[in-house]
Design goal:
The protein is α/β, with parallel strands linked by helices. The chain has 17 helices and 10 strands. A 4-stranded parallel sheet has the order 1-2-3-4, sandwiched between helices. Strands 5-6-9-10 form a 4-stranded parallel sheet.
Amino acid sequence: MSHLPTIDEIRQAPKVLLHDHLDGGVRPETIIDLARASGYTRLPTTDPGELRRWFRDAADSGSLERYLETFAHTVGVMRTKEALTRVARECAEDLAADGVVYAEIRYAPEQHIGKGLTLDEVVEAVLEGFRQGPPKIRVGTLLTAMRHAARSHEIAELAVRYRDVGVVGFDIAGAEAGYPPTRHLDAFEYLQRENAHFTIHAGEAFGLPSIWQAIQWCGADRLGHGVRIIDDISISGDGTAKLGRLAAYVRDKRIPLEMCPTSNLQTGAATSIAEHPIGLLRRLNFRVTVNTDNRLMSQTSVSEEFAKLVTAFGYGWDDLQWFTVNAMKSAFIPFDERLALINGVIKPGFAQLKWAVGRP
């Protein structure tokens, strides 16, 4: 058996990240600094190591609702221009250090206006931070509306207003149960009329109806997580897979799935990496991508997510390149720019690694 890619080798590979929350990847040291500067006093600890462990432990509850509670602290310190710019800059630095060459980072502007910022000022502060990041990574932003709130149309208009200067799309996020995508149908219809891109968190903590609504009612370009599509696939005794109509539609239409394996374990959407639906979905050639979701809460990176899949499924370089090209194909930037990154950066980068280590 050939030697499988190691974590250190994977870090050298050019990677693409489509599903990562800005407020879910803040450095613990930065949270403490910003809390001190802003007078935020509700942190469970001001020791960086202890705070990092607290976020991981709090997120390891098996509940999406409990997982989401951890964001009160990160959002709580991200309510000034300086804080937002710093967090965005450091996000780009951390991703570039992990070998990410293209990323789409999402955040909810409505959660960062508690200290007097306008929605436009929030967006401009984040864009400035990403402009200050390393030149070797390109970052686009997704503006997220909270599905339990009522500002989705306003945030959709904001995304369209800034789409030529760094905002590449729109999303809705938050607890799925009780808040179906169709509650925000007017926002999605507006985006379609404006020829704008959007993804929808669907099929994570809730099942097939959430996915069906996101695609067939709302017209999502991509699915955030989409892990519950597995519920529409049956496996016979001989291992043959039979796809239901929704699963077949998702595969046939090449609708990208923004999968986040470690996060899914934490929220109870999967029981282990080895049993995560990503293995079957990759075998069935769904448009699967690999993502981090929240790097702080999951204590992870794109490289670490790949390394876990290598261990669980025996994936080699060809598999990792397949996931990466899938992600770049599914990005919300123009086709020619996606193609340039695939042919000019990603494929040459993987080819060089394959040659250097001498294995597929």
